[in-house]
């Protein structure tokens, strides 16, 4: 993908230099949906970064002044023009507006460069930070799915199902927000 710059951030493909940053926020996932992406060693992080560097659907979010990785954005395209979107950020950088700043640029890229018509995100009902981010981005709550998906198990081995919201935004809504 082409590099995107915001006021404080750079959005770009992953590079080998991102291994340590990825390990920092992937070693201890704070949200169950990232448990399968848990990384325990710098070697695992390096292999993951190598794969992601060749995959434009994974976008590294880096501080402009240091190029340090602070999180990631990613998408999955559903033909012909719908994209499932997600984000994962290092807790050390929470509360500074980086997720919102990068996601706005990400949405602009998907709508204007990738010709997305519709974006949607699944957010667990206990992930309040992502719910607030979705709302700040102008996404509307479209649905609430009870016991929608399981990423982990209870101590007795039975699956723990997550109650999940679906948020969505249409390109025409995005354009109206920008011009209002």
UniProtKB/TrEMBL annotation:
<dbReference type="InterPro" id="IPR051531">
    <property type="entry name" value="N-acetyltransferase"/>
</dbReference>
<dbReference type="InterPro" id="IPR000182">
    <property type="entry name" value="GNAT_dom"/>
</dbReference>
<dbReference type="Pfam" id="PF13302">
    <property type="entry name" value="Acetyltransf_3"/>
</dbReference>
<dbReference type="GO" id="GO:0016747">
    <property type="term" value="F:acyltransferase activity, transferring groups other than amino-acyl groups"/>
</dbReference>
<feature type="domain" description="N-acetyltransferase">
    <location>
        <begin position="9"/>
        <end position="161"/>
    </location>
</feature>
<dbReference type="InterPro" id="IPR016181">
    <property type="entry name" value="Acyl_CoA_acyltransferase"/>
</dbReference>
<protein>
    <submittedName>
        <fullName>RBAM017480</fullName>
    </submittedName>
</protein>
